[in-house]
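Hello forum,

I keep getting stuck at the same step: I have a sequence, I want structure tokens, and every attempt I make locally crashes halfway through. Rather than fight my setup again tonight, could one of you with a working pipeline run this one for me? It's a single chain of 306 residues.
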Amino acid sequence: MKRLLLTISATGIALILFAAVGRRASGLPLTETIYMVPEYDVEIYLRDEVWQTGRCSRRDSVGLGFGATDEFSLWLQFDYLSASAFKATRSDVGDLFIKGKFYIGDYARNQIHLGFLLSLRFPLGKNAYVADEWRNLALGKYELKLGPFIRFDIFDVFFIHMNLFYTFREGNSENFFGGFYFDITKKDTWVKVFGLNPTEEDTFFSTDRLKNDYFSISMAWNTNYFYPFIPYIEFYGSIRVSRAHIDTGSVPIEAARYNVFLMSAGLRYFVKEAVYLGIYTIQNPLRMSQKDFIQAVYGIELSCQI
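Reply #2:
Ran it on my machine without issues. Output:
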């Protein structure tokens, strides 16, 4: 009886701790999660990844997250690229990301949790359409990603995360923000509804500008059964929206030459409730037919919330 009570108590403590961890900020490598930075808290995270894309390169990421409210968190992420995986060599800056997450609510007796993502890529890296040096590690063009993310709780032990995102991608010869019109003294601004009218040419939503866009869907499973170790697996896929010809259709990147399917597995160890270390890998099951694309990624990560 005593052993049973101790087991129940230990399980209860683990569940309480994981509930707190469940409000943690960091998403998984391929999947955005429902976890948020608590109000007024700050998250700092580091990721070091070795990328196999015909050669081995390294991408180091530094991120800073802010909990504006319990329902809204904001992150900044900066990437730094190195041509060699394990020694000092040629390097360059990667892209910059600004990500906002909105916590919408809990449903089905607190078993379903829903949020919304808005993420903007700033092209600090080289243009991947014309330069192959950092291709797939950086894009060098604007992207706006948005859509819902959701988590399903199963017996408060197993968790399923799902994403469905739409990404607006800047074409090689496009001006990403050129499809908007803000001069209210001009007739075009009203005809084009500030650039939101899809029936008009040269608007943000015009058919020609949507050819580079793509949908992505991902799913992840993790469990708190082994807490403080949290294992997870992921699946990710993306497909370009339009089947029409694009001038960058032969460039070996996502949503150009290739539609993507990737798999991931990883493990996080929570040193404390607000600190974890992680290790993970991303694998491309289609690598034999995509030899000039992402073959594999191997990463380590550290996150600290203060």
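The two ends are 40 Å apart (CA to CA). If your local run keeps crashing, start a new thread with the error log.
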